[in-house]
Amino acid sequence: MNSIGLYGLGVMGQSLVLNIASKGYKIAVCNRSKDVVKEFKDNRVKDLPISCYEDIKEFVDSLKKPRMILIMVQAGKAVDAVIEQFKPYLDEKDILVDCGNSYYKDTIRRVEECKKDGICFFGAGVSGGEMGALYGPSIMPSGDKEAYEHLKPILNAISAKAEDGAACCTYIGDSGSGHYVKMVHNGIEYGDIQIICEAYDIMSRVLKMPIDEIQKVFDKWNKGKLSSYLIDITSKILTVKDEKTNKYLVEVILDKAGQKGTGKWTSMEGLDLGVGIPTIAESVFARCLSAIKDKRLKAAALYDEEVIMHVDKDSLLKALENAVYCAKIISYAQGFALLKEASDSYNWDLNYGEIAMIWRNGCIIRAAFLQDIKKAYDEEDIVDNLIMTKHFSAILKENIAALRQVTIAAIGNGVYVPCLSSALEYYDGYRSPRLPANLLQAQRDFFGAHTYERLDEKGSFHTKWEEIEY
Ligand code: 6PG
What we know:
The chain is of the alpha/beta class. 56% of the residues lie in helices and 7% in strands. Helix 5 (104-115) links the parallel strand 5 and strand 6. The structure holds 6-phosphogluconic acid.
């Protein structure tokens, strides 16, 4: 009998299967298209303990009970279709594990629907792309605790290991929380990516540095406090030449960004829960703006204003590393603030330090920096916002001037830096003892009698701001 099954032999699915089999687990695989099963069997199975099935029933019957089936299909309707397809063959207590980037509300719904048939639906966020899936992803499992005990040994075995050997996998919490945490991971990923792109743009358009010089900067950053997977791949990307034009490949790639929705969902959650996550949201809007290339070209012709502010190259370049560091801290602080609000609102009791620990390796935002986040949570009993912790406030106090200098230089030269600037704005807003919301409340009360509170007296007040003549 096979220990586990996996349905969905896309790029991620195939890699996960090879990972599981390489750890010695007997695994059964199946896929909607039979050709893919055949091709996988012919080319990738080799002498690994993998059994390939074209028939769903045979696939299910080959599994030890309670059956554990990982589903690795595109998020959305495909997941519901797969569940329906399996239902007739499953027994009570069998476990379906959705490893895709599913929307957490869908996961919660599916858990309830499957419960009616006695089936355990379990959500697990998996990060790390193809290579992560193959050699060890970061895994964010959530759902029924008993089911997790069955899954735990395999998930731990296949997950990435941090430098100290710890598995980058931990039980996140109740139904939906694993996909939620993965969604926020992706929101933070969007922010990180955009911040890096803005730093590249500043070097390119403000400092007029050629690609090979920019590459050296990223390479250097990767050896310091910004050391991370995303900085590392950026430095690698900037070495690759295009065979056709002999230019750097990045220079011939169309500047229109794609997105699959997880950044948007994170931003929507910020709005739903009333948590300000402007840096993450701006990274989504930056992709939206990039996508309207034709319109941008027309606007560029219409508004050909030359904006030039003189900058000192050495000073700006030195500030840039610290500016990126500050923006990164502020962006992560927003992501973790969202996790806190979600944990309180949905009763998940999330362990933020543990979440940071399982992001240290395997996932797209992996970085040594995550260890500092864990430390910040360990050092303080209650953390409302990471920028208020001893560790990160000391860093921000020392380096925020760099973020200000860089943002001013970019804006002064007409370069679009929504994430760097929104991180600075968030910092300035968060530390403002008084905001102009007093006037805002007065306006709301003026036109809609929405009432306001006072600084000097409790209660709700309304003023007749002007005499109305009927
Ligand atoms: C990961 C990635 C992965 C995927 C992104 C890409 O953690 O492994 O986040 O899930 O590559 O979702 O998302 P976009 O297509 O929206 O950039």
